[in-house]
Write a structure and sequence with these properties.
The complex is a heterodimer of chains A (about 350) and B (about 260). Helix content of chain A is about 70%, strand content about 5%. Chain A is an all-alpha fold and about 350 residues long. Chain A has a two-stranded antiparallel ribbon. Chain A has a two-stranded antiparallel ribbon with strand order 2-3. The longest helix of chain A has 28 residues. Chain B folds into 2 domains: about 170 residues, P-loop containing nucleotide triphosphate hydrolases (Rossmann fold, 3-Layer(aba) Sandwich); about 80 residues, no CATH class. In chain B, about 35% of the residues lie in helices and about 25% in strands. Chain B has a 6-stranded mixed sheet with strand order 6-7-8-3-9-10, sandwiched between helices. Chain B has a 4-stranded antiparallel sheet with strand order 2-1-4-5, with helices on one face. In chain B, helix 3 runs parallel beside helix 6. Classes of the chains: A mainly alpha (about 350), B alpha/beta (about 260). At the A-B interface, helix 1, helix 7, helix 8 and helix 9 of A face helix 2, helix 3, helix 4 and helix 5 of B.
Chain lengths: ~350, ~260
Amino acid sequence: MFYREAGQFKTSYKADQAVFPIFQDRIFVAIWLFLGFVVVPMLANEYVFRAIFIPVIIMALAAIGLNLLVGYCGQVSLGSGAFMAVGAYAAYNFMIRIPELNPLICFLLGGLSATVVGVIFGIPSLRIKGFYLAVATLALQFFTDWTFSRIDWFTNYTPSGSIAVQPVEVWGFVFDSPIRKYLLCLTVLVIFTVIAKNLVRGRIGRAWMATRDMDVAAEIIGIRPIYAKLSAFAVSSFFIGVAGALWAYVHLGSWEPLAFDINLSFSILFMVIIGGLGSIVGGMLGATFITLLPLFLNQLPIWLGINMSTAMVSHLEYMIFGGLIIFFLAVEPLGLARIWQITKEKLRLWPFPH
Amino acid sequence: MNDTERKLGPTILKADNISLAFGGVKALTDISFEVKEHEILAIIGPNGAGKSSMLNVINGVYHPNAGSVTYRGNVRQQMKPHEAATQGIARTFQNIALFKGMSVLDNIMTGRTLKMHAGFLAQCLYVGRARNEEIQHRKKVEEIIDFLQIQSIRKTPVGRLPYGLQKRVELGRALASEPVLLLLDEPMAGMNIEEKEDMSRFILDVNDEFGTTIVLIEHDMGVVMDLSDRIVVLDYGKKIGDGTPTEIRNNKEVIDAYLGVSD
């Protein structure tokens, strides 16, 4: 079937403003959902769930969250690891201190705690921009690292400072097997993706993009910068906070403050940049790329039958990974999402050149 | 030019003894003028005369060091730009200030921000008010798109458009808020004759059809003389002339400022 919009006439603005105005796109998304919810659970094994699907999905959630802030609102943040930490530790504390609460509610409360922190640390964005703002958010990263390793109350006075949790149980249903965890994460991702898409295509998303593209003009139109920027910080940190809670509870199971250090912030930012700034699908593509590439590079020598020491493999992995990132950004600075978009535009005309 | 047939309303905007200085540089000194409702007022003057500063004072980007602005009967000292927007003041910029990453449609839709009131949750789910609002405002935006004859480019990112069209989209974005007072900062800068004619026609139509009061800055004297009801002339931050195009044309001080003094 050709990817065409010819013959698909829209007779109402409602139809024209649909997320996927082109019929083939809707089929495509339906196929993806079918693959995700039906085919993958039937085919994948435990290792694949644990090593690939679950981390990719949770990271995609975090990357979409950060993309709302960096890609849509134009506020650079290096504090994603911190927001994930806040989400994780807040969810943990809600769960042990109010055991009657539904864990899913605790995850959301973890996200809301990240929102509060995000809004507070977003206040500098009203005065400073760009690199300076990135440095200010970096402060948050160090602040949370310190808080969660020094203030024992947050870790419930565990002697080692690390936390181990039981599998999540909702209404007697235990998310203990990888397949259940996978379906939980995927459901959360789908819901949050829909919310993100709805926000960016509406008034608030336009306010964010206007602030990003030309803040003076945005203000003259009537968009209050404090509202646009802080709401972006709030929504973004909520997404990242929920991702953090999932990362801790569903993916890690036990963790220490180092799990949410600056490296995590950087990888999420890379996901957003490589995936494509200002694109929801970009967050997903970026998360997939950044999570899978090291795994792939790690396995490559084995597949090729080359005998190498593990140290050599991991060093090569770092080098090739770095090289590929530079290559990608040089070839397509707008990221994987842009490549995807160009492909679609080409497909619309294919096989004719114009 | 045609002020005999058009009736101007009462004074809508009044600047009283406005002075503005940036450090030691005096941008505006003791400027007073009035704008009547439905009027097209042009502010002219050589480069650096303080024209753009004057517009910035009117819509709250700059706060004058002395003097006050009276808009629709309210005297104001300090005002933020978004507050000016809520009171119906819209503007375009000398250097195009469109949202480059967004489509024409989204740019103009952004102009209607203040008219949209859907709650956050409704927007998250794109239901109820949020959805209805989007569609209802889309209709309004399409009217503006029709008015400016930019139907074919509505989904194009504005960064890809040629200069003349970008200026037109910027006018559209300003119109989207249904302003009472429209400030245009050099709407025809860098355009060719044909584009200038189009833009002049749009400006006259806006004034005529929607009754919008327009204050514009322009360097093309032909355009200024033809379009405006009244002209205010600034030079070195001071007002040196104020009157109908005919009066300005024969004002000695203005001629001196533009052509230099012969003696």
